[in-house]
Amino acid sequence: MVNGKGSRGRGGAPRRGGPARPVAAGRARPAKKSVARPTPPPREEPRTFVLGAVPGATPGKWIDLWRERMPHVSLELREITVEHQRAAIDDLDAALVRLPLAASEDLHVIELYEEQPVVVMSTDSELTAADELALADLAGQVVIAAADDVLHVIVPDAVPPAFAPPGDTAQAIATVATGVGVVIVPMSLARAHRRRDVEYRVLQDGPVSTVALAWLRENTTPDVEAFVGVVRGRTARSSR
User: Fold this and answer.
1) 100, 212 in Cβ contact below 8 A?
2) Can you point out the beta strands (E) in the chain?
3) pLDDT tens-digit readout, 13-55
4) Rounded CA gap, 224 and 1, in Å?
5) C-alpha dihedral over 74, 80, 82, 86, to 10 degrees?
6) Is the C or the N end of the chain the one with fewer CB within 10 Å?
7) Helices (H), the chain
8) Closest CA to 188 of 215, 211, 207, 205
């Protein structure tokens, strides 16, 4: 007799709806690869770079660049005299000097720029009528040379002063301001000692003054090389 409850499979067991599908296991995430971080450079100890500069030298823009590129190295600026500039270099990392400098095999010297000579005179002088002057225009003038004179200009037919040379350029220009004579100096010194009672004019055929960077060969340190790069206009990424 047929049972109306449905057919049975072999062995009398009820038939199942089909083989069970295996449950797919979740995909394993790949392990993260460790990235090696670069070792930071060793921290540099703070130190000081000592730069000498003769009167009239203008290192301001170089000092600003130095502070941007070398914040861990402070820069100390010391004023030195032209008269003693060679001896001063021995106690400095480097110095801005005026040429000529006594020849020496133990020095490195790099010429940087040249300055025009100017004639400084009283505002009441007839020489102010000209835009520029020549040596011939100074004939008959009292030409004053201070003790720290760096140009040593010989003016044909000039009148020698009847008084001792002033001790420095500032005193010479103060004398000129009273209406006595003229003084010939590099333009930067005329600007440094600017006064309301004096004017200056470019001396067309006068000698230029060359400003240079100098340092001892044995003191060529990485800091010195970095400063050389600054004054030569190298970028921070430029190679030496």
Assistant:
1) no
2) 47-53, 73-79, 94-98, 107-115, 117-122, 132-133, 143-144, 182-186, 198-203, 209-216
3) 555 555 555 555 556 666 666 666 777 656 667 899 999 999 9
4) 114
5) -70
6) N
7) 60-69, 85-89, 169-177, 187-192, 222-231
8) 211
